[in-house]
Amino acid sequence: MAVIVPFESPSGASIDGLVGLVAADMERVNTTILSRTGSDVTMIPEVANHLISSGGKRLRPMLTLAMAHLTGYPGDGHIKLAAAVEFMHTATLLHDDVVDESEMRRGKLSARMLWGNEASVLVGDFLLGQAFRMMVEVGSLRALDILSAAAATIAEGEVMQLAAAKNTATTEDEYLAVIRGKTAELFAAACEVGPVLADRPKAEQAASRSFGMNLGIAFQLVDDVLDYGGKAAKLGKNIGDDFREGKITLPVVLAFRRGSDSERAFWIKSLERGEISDHDLDHAIGLMNKHRALEDTISRAHHYGAMAVDALALFPASPMKAALGQVVAFCLARSH
Amino acid sequence: MAVIVPFESPSGASIDGLVGLVAADMERVNTTILSRTGSDVTMIPEVANHLISSGGKRLRPMLTLAMAHLTGYPGDGHIKLAAAVEFMHTATLLHDDVVDESEMRRGKLSARMLWGNEASVLVGDFLLGQAFRMMVEVGSLRALDILSAAAATIAEGEVMQLAAAKNTATTEDEYLAVIRGKTAELFAAACEVGPVLADRPKAEQAASRSFGMNLGIAFQLVDDVLDYGGKAAKLGKNIGDDFREGKITLPVVLAFRRGSDSERAFWIKSLERGEISDHDLDHAIGLMNKHRALEDTISRAHHYGAMAVDALALFPASPMKAALGQVVAFCLARSH
Lengths: 336, 336
Fold this sequence. Notes:
Number of strands of chain A: 2
CATH topology of chain A: Farnesyl Diphosphate Synthase
CATH class of chain A: Mainly Alpha
Number of domains of chain A: 1
Shape of chain A: globular
Oligomer: homodimer
Radius of gyration of chain A: 20 Å
């Protein structure tokens, strides 16, 4: 699941620093993305560009560029790897929309509403194939290993979510395992390949991976909160989507565990059996507020955000390191 | 699209020779397949093994093993590449079933009927990820290049088919471009990686690729014919599926081009507009027989079969080469 990341948040935290530092590289990434969605089969660039050009902020490829810079990589393999990361992400979104039967994505009709489920599945597969081609061209077997393992882990996390769907007894640990797979793993891999390309020591590779993993977890937790109280217009999706789809996210896990028997009956009725009537979303949000479930999900997000920042401690101070700290603050501040 | 390949055909052509020659390797491939579908997320092995253990004859991985043998490869990288090829094929089948809304696959309910479209999409993605992990483990960048390009080309062929679907004006050339992508490319890649692993001269790599490509085209053309006159029980699918789905295959292309105005109106009504009543499939088969469309599709298949056999000419005579010739004869004989 992804949301549009607004460039500014009320707290002043911003990703503008990062955007500025990687701007020149990002232009090359965008050119690569454009050329690699090309095909004589016109439906492919149509579907791919509908989503790719729809205003996502390309946070994941920016992270690949940033970590390559931070660790002093002098080559240009990071351009293709960053494009590959964005293709993997886009393929996941296309397939997610089919899985979730989503009607909207980033404030526009989803690709499957415009071209059908078939096109979403197949163009997703095409982008995944193109992503691997680009990785192969870069020629780093270690980067290939990281990104191909991530592809399998992401799918595994999504299946886990499917199996956990509508199960209100899901524990916080089980839920964390889901989001580590479906969201955080790609952040982690996107970051890890930077120092891998630069052939830096294992400690820097591990630190970069840890930064990405914890940032990804924090990002997803804030996303979960926004689904119950966010600014739908900025998000490009509707409040309550998770609720209507019976998705078990951390706010639900906390509200369910802390609730009374009759409250648990409400969660089971609405999420497991899908019996939802007009004011049930309001009631759900009321229960979350009563049990501080949204607030505490944000606290948890801050915990992972802090781990992300600390993971970068072994790198010397630099504008890029400061910008990456700002990215963490920005992701957390989205919830205000 | 794939069918169960029966081990024997009335003409006596058989794949038993190939099966015998690769039996020891194939056992290792099967062990690899089993271990790589493993996951703590139980739905993954369930869905994957439902299809993988459902009686497909694993022709594609056998081709990888065969070409590695034929070109004298002494290592064991071909085991993982063969398993990767089977995973790519299985992922394609899982996604195809979602795209085609198929209810049956190899004589059993399709995975999407048992676990839903969601699981079929995501487990397909997982298998694709695992396929790439195995390729990376083998460590041949050239083999990775071939197989990742194949992944993109297969998806491209499927999208092309989607765009051509229900368009009775499709030419034979356009149709050939579709099946080169969606079917023959994986046969070609499966064969090509054998001599690539063995580090054989370009001529042998090209010959192996050509063998696979032409065998794949012949295989698909026979498959198209079987959909209008095959033995549904052996195929594990129903006669007329392509017709009901409005799929434009070579028998349709030929019957349409050779037909009268009123016959073309029939094809447009049934395939483009999907207005199909009780006896229309019989009528369609009648028109195909009248214009020798099925017979001539088989003739075309023999043409590609002959090209496949000739592609192997530069290899010295051996039991493996003879067995590969038998595979071509067998694929063609399925139509009798």
